[in-house]
Amino acid sequence: MTSDADKENCLGWAARDPSGFLSPYKFSRRDVGVDDVSLTITHCGVCYADVAWTRNVQGHSKYPLVPGHEIVGIVKEVGSNVQRFKTGDHVGVGTYVNSCRECEYCDDGLETQCLKGAVFTFDGIDTDGTVTKGGYSSFIVVHERYCYTIPENYPLSLAAPLLCAGITVWTPMMRHNMNQPGKSLGVIGLGGLGHMAVKFGKSFGLKVTVFSTSLSKKDEALNLLGADNFIISSNDAEMKAMEKSLDFIINTASADIPFDPYLALLKSSGVLVLVGFPSEVKFHPASLILGMKSISGSVTGGTKQTQEMLYYCAAHKIYPNTEIVPIQYANEALERLINKDVKYRFVIDIANSLK
Known about the structure:
Layout: H1 4-7, E1 10-15, E2 22-27, E3 36-45, H2 48-54, E4 71-78, E5 90-93, E6 96-98, H3 104-107, E7 119-120, E8 139-143, E9 147-149, H4 156-159, H5 165-175, E10 184-188, H6 192-203, E11 207-212, H7 218-224, E12 229-232, H8 236-241, E13 246-251, H9 260-263, E14 266-274, H10 285-289, E15 294-297, H11 303-315, E16 322-325, H12 330-338, E17 345-349, H13 350-353
């Protein structure tokens, strides 16, 4: 008779309670089904979601909780129906691992908007009733639809942050046609998401202005990331000088900011997109009405656009700025992420440290 311990085929790091403290944890992954891909995880990006879920910020975390939804690795086994992948391929897995596959949004490759709800990569309830466990682990088994080809010439460690941070800003940029050379983009916040918005913006030929509360980010925004302009958002004179100058603004910050001063920076029919999660959004109706302006929201992206983004980044040599850390450093990495002390995304080297 097989004991439960014998079935525990996967090693991960899990939080056991809302302290969020991570430590080694053995558990079992499902057997590879006919449509599944099993991948050996080499790297996993560290996202703010890892902080929020391990610490039960939303109040529905299920413990033990294995975080991580910026997953890359190498295929070790595929099911008999799998067409797109073979053993040895480089693959990625993002923020969700399942969806209904029959609603209008799934049919459109926009599985994030699945009418029955996409199944999150960790702390989600999968179709078999089990709780999903994320990429702070040795391997993962995922339906091939939710796996992405990482081009062979793209380093795996750098691909990881694209699967949440990258696609989260790419999706609204595509939706609102922010890829028109010569247009102007404002980026609020310069973290994992913000630095990718700057890189995409420059690649699309946009004039990019970074807004930050921190003067210490000016040199990196302009010289490392190539932004055209840097504004201290608390400087009223600098803000006033920018009025009616931007076609688009992406707000990657989750801090509570006043929205009217930013809406004033948009040209007529300009768009401000929210990808961060402030506690509330307040603005005067006239800030929208008089200039025909819009506020829009966006979250990660569907399988179709995620794959397109990965190919684009490989073709145009767009790479996130990362700090590679071992799994043993995961707790410190989450603390430093809370303190915004990272340039600009932690990536855990699972292959060389998870033992």
